[in-house]
Amino acid sequence: MARNGLRADSQNLRGTSENLSERESSSIGSDSEINGFTTEKQTDKYGFIGGAQQHTEESAQDVPPEVVRQREVKWLDMLNSWDKWMAKRHKKLCSENHYKHKTLNASENHQVQQIRAQDVPPEVVREREVKWLDMLNSWDKWMAKRHKKIKLRCQKGIPPSLRGRAWLYLSGGKVKLEQNHGKFQELDSKPGDPKWLDVIEKDLHRQFPFHEMFVSRGGHGQQDLYRVLKAYTLYRPEEGYCQAQAPIAAVLLMHMPAEEAFWGLVQICEKYLPGYYSAGLEAIQLDGEILFALLRRISTVAYKHLKKHKIDPVLYMTEWFMCAFSRTLPWASVLRVWDMFFCEGVKIIFRVGLVLLKNMLGSSDKLKVCQGLYETMELLRTVEPRYMQEGFLMREIIELQVSERDIEKEHLVQLKRWKETHGELRCKSPPRMHGARAIMIADPPTHKDLLQAPTIIVEPPLEDASSKQKKKGKNKREPPSNPTTETLSPAHPPSPTLQKDTPLQQSNQSLSSSSTEQDTYL
Amino acid sequence: MDFSWNYRFGIIILGDSFVGKSSLLQRYTEGMFDKSRQSPLGIDFKVKHLEFEPGILIKLLLWDTAGQERFKSISRSYMRNSVGCLLVFDLTKRQTFERLRDWYNEVIDYVKPSKMVFILIGHKCDLEEEQEVSKEEAERLAKELGITHYVEASAKDNLNVDSAFESLTMEIYELFHAGRIPIREGWYGLSVGVPVDLYNPDEPKTEKSGCC
């Protein structure tokens, strides 16, 4: 909230002076300018060091000057005939007030801030955490009977402290992990094919280099990224490594330990986006055609423009789709998109693409200045921040009427066309699963698969000072065979290990813990 | 709208992963070097204007490609809309040099019957001690493939980057004026001062049937 307040102030001063606390995030224009800042190591709440991705979000608050001028004229007009406007066109006034205007008065500014609030108030976060813990602890029941509620809660945004665990449950990665115990460790201990390792190694330092986890060469983030990507090439040797998998794995690693991130990656590559990373990249090209076909109904103007200039969809959508927008959107939006993507599947990715195309190319005014392939590409490469801003984008995605059925229908049409022009698909991918529910139905878990193994184990203070067990037990996994991990009840006296988060023993207290490290792995 | 150019050349940059294609391009178009830059996925492009002779403005459209084998199916379709190609290898990685012949043949096959003007670039010449390919050897290969220029460059130290791009542009310009680059209907690698309908790649349908 305080951040919002500061931001509001500096908004009004923008152009004359800049609030110091904003300097870092607003003055950085491009990745390479960051060098001077890295020593300070001030990260935003997502772990980015004055990062480029956050920059876009901050500047999303800026309404372009032309628009501000227009609105000023409108408002002057309204204020000059205030009684009439209030009596007859009150609705209009409200809409100007609610969604758009930012500069004329302070109370209005406050309202805008509330609507655009990126920071959910802490009480609400706490409430949501309780709800999510409840869901996660009876996940099979919730998925079977109250799936709609889960979907709605994903749309509202998963609380950050539980995001990693929720993604793993939604994707079915949790079930995979439980059903393949020891698999990751086995892969992890193997040497790997040098052909892939060489490429992976060179890619490590290029993934989110402004995130604190990945900033240092050979640091724990880069090491884990290496392990996860290497394990995948051993898990699917026929697939190997695709460079677009690295950003996906990196985003997962920001939210969960390596083993879980590995299974999350497996689910994305095999259930959500099958074939995207396979040799030949047919699946992504096919989805490009599907996206383009869907655009026709969503925005005829944009569709016609792209058609007229013969702009092949792979030109603008390859990175969008292959990275699930993680390299495109401001970070707050990336996380919200992924929350929904894990729940509802690839249609969310299509919707984001359609929303961006619709807004960027959807009016003939905008197209006047981009008469050609290169001009259009330039425009699509630098999407206006306001269209990617969390609140705006989420509203648009949720409202856009594009269903799984639409995508599947178009898939058949485009597949037929593809076969006519290219011949049979060379890479036979498994069928795409549209979201958490479809995955769960296809791969039903046992209740045991969904039990949360403790990831944080606190050693009780030992009176015997000579004991060597002084190290903290963080991240130490209890062997699954140990019965105490599953049956600990609050009344039970502390046995050799005390878990902070077993299915029966989570509490609000552990949730409100200020340690982000612990929160992340809850 | 940009009405000002006299010629527009499409230029594609090819070579194995990590030879430094994007770095060369970034150095040339933005004047900087960033070793942690993200690798392009699919295809990317940059624009640069060159005033060649006084009053002659050339617009370069530079296609950057992902080097990984599996991205070829995407970058391939853009070979056809280029008149020039920077073929890049890493001086410190012998296998990237040995792959050049394959790259070359693939391009020639793919763009037939259009003309493609190549320049060979031995990249990372700043790493003098680690070089695995000699200048003589690279020049020999260039000669054998009929490539006029071989340049050793470094995006990191800004050595020969501008001159590499300029040599290629100059060669295209001269070949065109000697009548050696015919402009055919439906080919957009080289355009002469038609300022309106910018760069229309050729029919995607016919193009795709040939790829993959």
TrEMBL record, chain A:
One of its GO terms (cellular component) is plasma membrane. One of its GO terms (molecular function) is GTPase activator activity. Pfam families: RabGAP-TBC. SUPFAM superfamilies: Ypt/Rab-GAP domain of gyp1p. Residues 1-41, 458-522 are annotated as: Disordered. Residues 504-515 have a biased composition (Low complexity). Residues 157-345 form the Rab-GAP TBC domain. Residues 9-19 have a biased composition (Polar residues). InterPro entries: Rab-GAP-TBC_dom (IPR000195), Rab-GAP_TBC_sf (IPR035969), Rab_GAP_TBC_domain (IPR050302). Keywords: GTPase activation. PANTHER family: RAB GTPASE-ACTIVATING PROTEIN 1-LIKE, TBC1 DOMAIN FAMILY MEMBER 10A. This is TBC1 domain family member 10A. It comes from Acipenser ruthenus.
Automatic annotation (TrEMBL), chain B:
The keyword Heme does not apply. Keywords: GTP-binding, Nucleotide-binding. SUPFAM superfamilies: P-loop containing nucleoside triphosphate hydrolases (SSF52540). It holds the Pfam family Ras. It comes from the Eukaryota. SMART domains: RAB (SM00175), RAN (SM00176), RAS (SM00173), RHO (SM00174). The keyword ATP-binding does not apply. InterPro entries: P-loop_NTPase, Rab_GTPases_membrane_traffic, Small_GTP-bd, Small_GTPase. Transmembrane segments: none annotated. GO terms for molecular function: GTP binding; GTPase activity. Belongs to the small GTPase superfamily. Rab family. This is Ras-related protein Rab-39B. It comes from Acipenser ruthenus. The lineage of its organism: Eukaryota, Metazoa, Chordata, Craniata, Vertebrata.
